[in-house]
Amino acid sequence: MRNTGTGNNDLLAGKNSVVTGSTSGIGLGIARRLAAAGANVMVNGLGEQGQVDAAVRSVDDAGPGQVVFSPANMIQPAEISAMVEEAVGTFGTIDILVNNAGIQFVSPIQDFPPGKWDDIIATNLSSSFHTISAATPHMQAAGWGRIINISSLHALVASPYKAAYVAAKHGVAGLTKVVALELAQQNITVNSIAPGYVETPLVTGQITDTARARGITEDEVVRDVMLAAQPTKKFIQIDEIAELVIFLCSDAAASITGAILPVDGGWSAQ
Length: 270
Hints:
alpha/beta, Rossmann fold
């Protein structure tokens, strides 16, 4: 049954959102939370048809707004442009853009496949450029907008064996700051959320890859590699990221722009 309550559920009523990479993990959590706040949501992502259908249905069930799906591949600029135009054609405009799509590959630099580098840079960095470039004119015409780039604490610090991912996330931080400055007087904010390790399918996949790359067990990866850097010794929860997105979309966050906001259990305090 759809959530049709009031109060916090209508905070973003009438707003139109696009969330890339939202068929699982952090993106799905954000899409559900936007829907619960009353926004219309375009879900985007790849995956098995049954899993995609279930994800879209769960977003639709979360709130009273309209929910649509785009299968656009974030490696393909033409598909990204078509996705944005489809969202505008369906909703009328785009008010909220959440760039969340991301992939990962772990390898020593000397063995890092060039094709993996290209795919990670395209998905994790270039896709955000393409979505922002396409969506910004619609926000400018409406006189309001929120762009939120889900990066990673790896936008601020590095880890071994993640050359492409760390490079891309540092790039997202720079892109965020540049666009925030360009749009600062147009009632459009641009921010980046930089999570530490969140318990998602992407992180679960990294555990196996990192164990192989480092020659240690998966339990040792969790204890000695991933959570070693987070003083809380806990994975970040998806809901924590989603709630910060909602806050950044609110009027209370109107003066927050160009920020890289760590949600990292204290990692960056060290």
